[in-house]
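Service request form, structural biology core

Requester: graduate student, group of Dr. S.
Request type: structure prediction, single chain
Budget code: on file
Notes: please return the result as structure tokens.

Sequence provided:
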Amino acid sequence: MIRVTNLSFSYSKGIPILSDINLEFDLRSTAIIGQNGAGKTTFVKLLKGLLKPFDGEIFIRDYNVKKTTAAELAKTIGLVFQNPNDQIFKRNVLEEVMFGPLNIKLDKNTAKQNAMEALEMVGLTDKLDLNPHDLSLSEKKLLCIASVVAMDTDIIIFDEPTIAQDYEGKKKIRNIIKTLKEKNKLVMTIIHDMDFVAENFERTIVFNEGKVILDGDTRYVFSKKEILKNAHVEAPGITRLGEKLGYHEIFLTVEEFIEMKEKEMMG
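Core staff response, request fulfilled:
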């Protein structure tokens, strides 16, 4: 889906933001984690074509990102911004979600059908005529997710999807990720919510000071305590609880932990 070779980037000469990144992305759902300033958002903007690499190459399917406009890439890769106010600009909710599909030249009927399906997923079908700026922050975030989902791109990137979300909001986003994976789409996220990563993403990549320092199956990544500590990343709550209780297994969900405890009690 995506191939990144010897990628480097800086905003100012002599101050590298990313250095020699080599990654390949398949259909595994992937979380990109690391402290603020690690280079995660810059990396994603490069994938989307919003920035161009200084050195190295990025291929999205057959597109060389250096030689492709962000508008051309919009049919293949969608990005939900961290701050929904950076993304919202139409007069009502339905127009907002239809804008993306129409912009990539889907016909009006398909655009509306995609928009309604996406709004159903995020639970906003009762707010079609509202001005998006009158929604709560949580609803705005869900609206932006719907806007990108409606474009039906092969790759979807969420920047901090769980910000401002309560349990129900996170549940909706979890279900959207599951649905997208079932449709064979590559789902990626930049995120600080490690519990959400552990529950929903198969692969995790750790950035630190502009470099990839860890990459692999999410359970494997959260087993590497020292590397995570050096990157100032804390493992999920249930992983840390298991460790404190003396277990060698790496737990990613509360359900896994409960299942293990039940087996202990039975046996």
